[in-house]
Amino acid sequence: MEQNKDMTPDAIVVLAGGIKRESSGSWVSTDLTSADNEIGAPGGKLRVLAVAVLARKYSAAMVIASGGKGYDVPKDAVEDHPLIAKIVRDELIECGVSISRLVLEEKSNTTYQQLRELEILITKRSMKNVMIVTSRYHLPRLRAMVEMKFPRMIDIVKMVSAEEVLLETDSARWKNVIVEAYSSAFMAERMAKEEQGVSQIKDSTYQWKSV
Description:
With 211 residues, this protein is an alpha/beta fold. It has one domain (11-161, 174-202): Rossmann fold (3-Layer(aba) Sandwich). The protein is 44% helix and 14% strand. It has 8 helices and 7 strands, in the order βββααβαβαβαβααα. The protein has helices spanning 34-37, 44-57, 84-94, 111-125, 139-149, 162-169, 171-182, 185-202; strands at 11-15, 19-21, 27-29, 62-66, 102-105, 130-134, 157-161. The strands form 2 sheets. The protein has a 5-stranded parallel sheet, with helices on both faces. A two-stranded antiparallel sheet has the order 2-3. The longest helix has 18 residues, at 185-202. The relative contact order is 0.17.
Protein backbone atom coordinates (compact mmCIF):
# COMPACT_ATOMS: atom_id res chain seq x y z
CA MET A 1 0.00 0.00 0.00
CA GLU A 2 3.02 2.28 0.17
CA GLN A 3 3.79 1.93 -3.55
CA ASN A 4 2.91 5.53 -4.40
CA LYS A 5 4.21 7.17 -1.25
CA ASP A 6 6.64 9.48 -3.06
CA MET A 7 4.16 10.60 -5.71
CA THR A 8 2.09 13.76 -5.60
CA PRO A 9 -1.47 12.73 -4.71
CA ASP A 10 -4.40 13.39 -7.01
CA ALA A 11 -6.52 13.83 -3.89
CA ILE A 12 -6.23 14.11 -0.14
CA VAL A 13 -9.19 12.64 1.74
CA VAL A 14 -10.16 13.45 5.30
CA LEU A 15 -12.20 10.68 6.90
CA ALA A 16 -14.35 12.62 9.34
CA GLY A 17 -14.20 11.75 13.02
CA GLY A 18 -16.84 12.68 15.56
CA ILE A 19 -18.66 15.99 15.77
CA LYS A 20 -19.91 18.10 18.66
CA ARG A 21 -21.99 21.20 19.22
CA GLU A 22 -20.31 24.13 20.92
CA SER A 23 -22.07 26.47 23.35
CA SER A 24 -22.38 28.98 20.50
CA GLY A 25 -24.45 26.45 18.59
CA SER A 26 -21.77 25.78 15.98
CA TRP A 27 -20.94 22.21 15.00
CA VAL A 28 -17.24 21.28 14.95
CA SER A 29 -15.02 18.22 14.80
CA THR A 30 -14.03 16.46 18.01
CA ASP A 31 -10.80 17.00 19.91
CA LEU A 32 -8.52 14.17 21.05
CA THR A 33 -9.89 14.10 24.60
CA SER A 34 -11.72 11.78 26.96
CA ALA A 35 -14.76 14.07 26.97
CA ASP A 36 -15.05 14.01 23.19
CA ASN A 37 -14.49 10.26 23.15
CA GLU A 38 -17.78 9.96 25.03
CA ILE A 39 -19.76 11.59 22.22
CA GLY A 40 -18.08 10.17 19.13
CA ALA A 41 -14.79 9.27 17.50
CA PRO A 42 -12.17 11.59 19.08
CA GLY A 43 -9.55 13.49 17.15
CA GLY A 44 -11.65 14.63 14.21
CA LYS A 45 -10.14 18.10 14.40
CA LEU A 46 -6.62 16.67 14.21
CA ARG A 47 -7.59 14.99 10.94
CA VAL A 48 -8.76 18.33 9.55
CA LEU A 49 -5.60 20.13 10.65
CA ALA A 50 -3.39 17.40 9.18
CA VAL A 51 -5.20 17.59 5.84
CA ALA A 52 -4.70 21.37 5.82
CA VAL A 53 -0.96 20.79 6.28
CA LEU A 54 -0.88 18.26 3.44
CA ALA A 55 -2.97 20.52 1.22
CA ARG A 56 -0.31 23.21 1.55
CA LYS A 57 2.41 20.67 0.71
CA TYR A 58 0.54 19.22 -2.28
CA SER A 59 -1.01 22.33 -3.75
CA ALA A 60 -2.33 20.64 -6.91
CA ALA A 61 -4.30 17.94 -5.10
CA MET A 62 -8.05 18.13 -4.66
CA VAL A 63 -9.26 17.82 -1.08
CA ILE A 64 -12.18 15.50 -0.35
CA ALA A 65 -14.27 15.98 2.79
CA SER A 66 -16.22 12.82 3.50
CA GLY A 67 -19.30 12.27 5.66
CA GLY A 68 -23.10 12.53 5.66
CA LYS A 69 -25.30 12.65 8.76
CA GLY A 70 -22.90 10.30 10.53
CA TYR A 71 -23.25 7.17 12.60
CA ASP A 72 -20.97 7.92 15.54
CA VAL A 73 -22.54 11.26 16.53
CA PRO A 74 -23.76 12.65 19.87
CA LYS A 75 -26.93 10.96 21.11
CA ASP A 76 -28.64 14.34 21.49
CA ALA A 77 -27.68 15.55 18.01
CA VAL A 78 -30.69 17.08 16.31
CA GLU A 79 -31.80 15.42 13.10
CA ASP A 80 -31.09 18.56 11.08
CA HIS A 81 -27.48 19.00 12.17
CA PRO A 82 -25.18 19.93 9.26
CA LEU A 83 -23.75 17.16 7.11
CA ILE A 84 -20.35 16.17 8.44
CA ALA A 85 -18.66 16.89 5.10
CA LYS A 86 -19.90 20.48 5.34
CA ILE A 87 -18.62 20.85 8.91
CA VAL A 88 -15.21 19.60 7.76
CA ARG A 89 -15.33 21.83 4.66
CA ASP A 90 -15.86 24.92 6.81
CA GLU A 91 -12.98 23.94 9.10
CA LEU A 92 -10.67 23.36 6.15
CA ILE A 93 -11.56 26.76 4.71
CA GLU A 94 -10.77 28.31 8.10
CA CYS A 95 -7.36 26.61 7.85
CA GLY A 96 -6.71 28.25 4.50
CA VAL A 97 -7.76 25.53 2.04
CA SER A 98 -9.34 27.13 -1.02
CA ILE A 99 -13.00 26.26 -1.55
CA SER A 100 -12.20 25.68 -5.23
CA ARG A 101 -10.15 22.62 -4.28
CA LEU A 102 -12.82 21.05 -2.08
CA VAL A 103 -15.03 18.14 -3.11
CA LEU A 104 -17.78 17.01 -0.73
CA GLU A 105 -18.82 13.38 -0.34
CA GLU A 106 -22.10 13.62 1.58
CA LYS A 107 -23.59 10.11 1.36
CA SER A 108 -21.52 8.05 3.80
CA ASN A 109 -22.17 7.48 7.50
CA THR A 110 -19.57 4.83 8.39
CA THR A 111 -15.95 4.09 7.50
CA TYR A 112 -17.04 1.33 5.16
CA GLN A 113 -19.44 3.66 3.37
CA GLN A 114 -16.74 6.33 3.12
CA LEU A 115 -14.45 3.84 1.40
CA ARG A 116 -17.23 2.70 -0.90
CA GLU A 117 -17.97 6.28 -1.99
CA LEU A 118 -14.27 7.01 -2.35
CA GLU A 119 -13.85 4.04 -4.68
CA ILE A 120 -16.62 5.48 -6.85
CA LEU A 121 -14.86 8.87 -6.95
CA ILE A 122 -11.52 7.26 -7.76
CA THR A 123 -13.06 5.42 -10.70
CA LYS A 124 -15.07 8.40 -11.93
CA ARG A 125 -12.08 10.76 -11.85
CA SER A 126 -9.46 8.18 -12.92
CA MET A 127 -7.30 8.91 -9.87
CA LYS A 128 -4.04 7.00 -9.52
CA ASN A 129 -2.73 8.18 -6.16
CA VAL A 130 -4.92 9.09 -3.20
CA MET A 131 -3.93 9.98 0.34
CA ILE A 132 -6.42 9.11 3.10
CA VAL A 133 -5.99 10.87 6.44
CA THR A 134 -7.45 9.43 9.62
CA SER A 135 -6.51 8.96 13.27
CA ARG A 136 -3.65 6.70 14.34
CA TYR A 137 -6.00 4.44 16.31
CA HIS A 138 -8.24 4.02 13.25
CA LEU A 139 -5.56 3.01 10.74
CA PRO A 140 -5.47 -0.78 11.41
CA ARG A 141 -9.22 -1.18 10.87
CA LEU A 142 -9.11 1.06 7.81
CA ARG A 143 -6.32 -1.04 6.29
CA ALA A 144 -8.19 -4.25 7.05
CA MET A 145 -11.31 -2.89 5.35
CA VAL A 146 -9.41 -1.91 2.21
CA GLU A 147 -7.71 -5.30 2.02
CA MET A 148 -10.95 -7.21 2.53
CA LYS A 149 -13.49 -5.17 0.55
CA PHE A 150 -11.61 -2.80 -1.76
CA PRO A 151 -8.65 -4.69 -3.26
CA ARG A 152 -8.66 -2.45 -6.34
CA MET A 153 -7.67 0.48 -4.11
CA ILE A 154 -4.68 -1.23 -2.50
CA ASP A 155 -2.17 0.17 -5.00
CA ILE A 156 -3.88 3.56 -5.20
CA VAL A 157 -4.38 4.69 -1.62
CA LYS A 158 -1.87 5.66 1.01
CA MET A 159 -3.28 5.78 4.55
CA VAL A 160 -1.81 8.48 6.76
CA SER A 161 -1.99 9.13 10.50
CA ALA A 162 -3.10 12.66 11.31
CA GLU A 163 -1.08 12.50 14.51
CA GLU A 164 2.15 11.75 12.64
CA VAL A 165 1.59 14.61 10.19
CA LEU A 166 1.09 17.05 13.05
CA LEU A 167 4.06 15.73 15.02
CA GLU A 168 6.30 16.15 11.98
CA THR A 169 4.96 19.65 11.40
CA ASP A 170 4.87 21.03 14.95
CA SER A 171 6.11 18.59 17.56
CA ALA A 172 6.33 21.26 20.26
CA ARG A 173 2.59 21.91 19.98
CA TRP A 174 1.34 18.36 19.56
CA LYS A 175 3.69 15.92 21.30
CA ASN A 176 2.26 16.24 24.81
CA VAL A 177 -1.33 16.28 23.56
CA ILE A 178 -0.87 13.10 21.57
CA VAL A 179 1.27 11.24 24.10
CA GLU A 180 -1.20 12.03 26.89
CA ALA A 181 -4.17 10.86 24.82
CA TYR A 182 -2.54 7.62 23.71
CA SER A 183 -1.45 6.85 27.26
CA SER A 184 -4.99 7.22 28.61
CA ALA A 185 -7.58 4.66 29.67
CA PHE A 186 -10.14 5.96 27.18
CA MET A 187 -7.75 5.43 24.28
CA ALA A 188 -6.76 1.97 25.49
CA GLU A 189 -10.45 1.04 25.45
CA ARG A 190 -11.04 2.56 22.01
CA MET A 191 -7.98 0.85 20.54
CA ALA A 192 -9.15 -2.47 21.98
CA LYS A 193 -12.47 -2.00 20.18
CA GLU A 194 -10.62 -1.16 16.98
CA GLU A 195 -8.53 -4.33 17.34
CA GLN A 196 -11.71 -6.31 17.87
CA GLY A 197 -13.07 -4.80 14.67
CA VAL A 198 -9.94 -5.87 12.78
CA SER A 199 -10.34 -9.43 14.09
CA GLN A 200 -13.99 -9.48 13.05
CA ILE A 201 -13.13 -8.26 9.55
CA LYS A 202 -10.57 -11.04 9.21
CA ASP A 203 -12.91 -13.79 10.46
CA SER A 204 -15.90 -12.47 8.46
CA THR A 205 -18.10 -11.59 11.45
CA TYR A 206 -17.87 -7.81 11.03
CA GLN A 207 -21.12 -5.83 10.73
CA TRP A 208 -20.53 -3.68 7.67
CA LYS A 209 -23.49 -1.23 7.93
CA SER A 210 -23.79 -0.79 4.20
CA VAL A 211 -26.86 1.48 4.38
